[in-house]
Write a structure and sequence with these properties.
About 35% of the residues lie in helices and about 20% in strands. With about 210 residues, it is of the alpha/beta class.
Length: about 210
């Protein structure tokens, strides 16, 4: 029997893994108790939603709390893992901007600015796609300042979880625990210096760190 080529294996993975991944996310969400520490409503304007790369798995439900019909594009890196994430989040109605704010960044930033000006929300992991962990890259600040749009900060803290040995210490909640979503009021960084904005975003995303 002829073994599958690398390309065939990847194509097969892209057919199977995202579907299974979306089912796992739904299962973990619905088997956990949920607590939302969050505003009742967010801004009527398009906005930027941010969370750390390591807390990305359960982000769909932070956004879907406010928008029944998704109108959001997420920054997803162009490597194969990014393709898997993009297709998985597609099952929740999320679009993607391929490329990162650090690699091939100019094209992705221009697309993000166009999308948010046309009414789509933008999702970003400020320390993605490769870290360093919990370090805010310039991209999120540049987009917010160019578009004058506000940033909503999201922390997702499960009571029980597995933590991977990846650079971002990626968190996978265990079932039958409690998921705490901490969602900030929209913050405005349009008039801040870059370092001041970076500090505000970082502190906001670490405010419930253990």
């Amino acid at each position: 029997m002829k073994l599958l080529t690398k390309q065939q294996k990847r194509s097969l993975a892209l057919l199977i893994i995202p579907f299974i991944g979306s089912l796992i996310i739904r299962f973990l969400y619905f088997t956990n108790k949920k607590k939302f520490h969050a505003p009742d409503t967010l801004t009527d304007e398009s906005f930027i939603m941010a969370c750390w790369h390591g807390e990305l798995l359960m982000i769909p439900y932070a956004y879907l709390r406010y928008k029944e019909i998704p109108s959001v594009k997420l920054f997803i890196s162009e490597h194969f893992d990014g393709e898997l994430i993009a297709k998985t989040l597609g099952f929740f109605g999320f679009g993607t901007i391929r490329g990162s704010t650090t690699r091939g960044g100019a094209k992705a930033l221009i697309q993000a600015i166009k999308e948010i000006k046309s009414g789509s929300d933008i999702g970003i992991t400020p320390d993605g796609p490769k870290g360093p962990r919990h370090q805010v890259h310039d991209g999120i600040i540049a987009i917010a300042q160019k578009t004058k749009k506000k940033i909503v900060l999201v922390e997702i803290k499960p009571s029980k979880y597995w933590q991977l040995k990846s650079w971002d210490k990626f968190i996978v909640p265990k079932p039958f625990g409690e998921l705490n979503y901490f969602i900030s009021e929209p913050i405005d960084v349009s008039e801040l210096e870059f370092e001041e904005a970076r500090k505000l975003i970082k502190e906001g995303l670490l405010s419930h760190e253990h």
